[in-house]
Amino acid sequence: xxxxxxxxxxxxxxLAFGVPQARAxxxxxxxxxxxxxxxxKSERRLTLMRGGVPIRSFxxxxxxxxxxxxxxxxxxxxxxxxxxLDAKNPQSDYFLSIHVSYPNRDDLERAHRNHxxxxxxxxxxxxxNNLKHxxxxxxxxxxxxxxxxxxxxxxxxxxxxTRVDTPIEIKP
Length: 172
Description:
alpha+beta, 2 domains, 5 helices, 8 strands, globular, disordered N terminus
């Protein structure tokens, strides 16, 4: 069974020194890699799936206006739909971040039809590197601009258990 910190040494090597062997050592044999991510906004829950079976589940915090699908930049909503995790950033303004491929073609068409900018930069991430509030604030409130936030410990697990190009479904 995967220990919460089993891959931490490998992650440290990869992040700090760019050691390619660290990524290669993290295989499906050593970690239960997710093949799908499901976010249920109403439940504030992110679940990592493998072969249709949940392998991990985490509490999340969403945009400041979490109900409804993201319509435009600045609406503080978290999008709903099917996307992909399309990039990882170990040097973001937050404790790790994984980019979600929002906006998709439907999002772009809807926004342009309404003469709006769809926005972007939707991420799964941990806490801000420079906290503007006490840490407890982030664990009690939805606080992002539309992203999906986790505790730093949980973000580390999501980072380790997902790959770029993993599908993500964000449900209401």
